[in-house]
Protein: 3-phytase B
Organism: Diplodia seriata
Amino acid sequence: MQEMCGFETTVRGSSAWCNVFSRDEWLSFEYARDVIHFYRAGPGNRFGALMGWLWLNATTSLLLEGPSAGPFFFSLYASHLPMLDPANFCSSVHDGDIVPMLAALDIFHDKADLPITRRADDRVWKTSQVTPMGGRITFERLSCPESESPTQAYVRININDGVVPMPGCDSGPGRSCPLPDFAAKIKNRGVELGDFRAKCGLGDDMPDRITFLHQ
């Protein structure tokens, strides 16, 4: 019933239904949603990060290629932002892929799985911050021509209009991660998660990565 508050607010700008529930009830509702996404496709699901890594790996390949990857991914945003430098582009997917992809990135990491018998108010994983209405993640490929390494490329992660540093890799400008280091971390994460085909019981004749992000 509490979901009606959000949908009515989105449509009408406000909802009297929201006032029916107490603050504690809202906090419990928030936690219930967090638990659902955490275990359905997030860090608490043994396949979550593995599914997200497939997309993350393909996106990393595009970031390594840069502008030579083609105009499609630049046109997603650059066509509407003419001031955007071609070396700084965004790659996007459906919001349903955000949760497993963030699990693969291991950005919002809790030391233990979310408990289901009590509310963990000190948790890091909060769906309202990860996938709010209109939630989005932008991977920015950038370089600094005026710096000591003008040809060095970096990756900066922007989650819902807020820069979130890559754990253990934020030495670049704006807390970005040097692209070679980013690629190495993604590769190592893939090794850590294991082979997609083996984990999902697929045959060796099935693809172990996605290729449709390329034109």
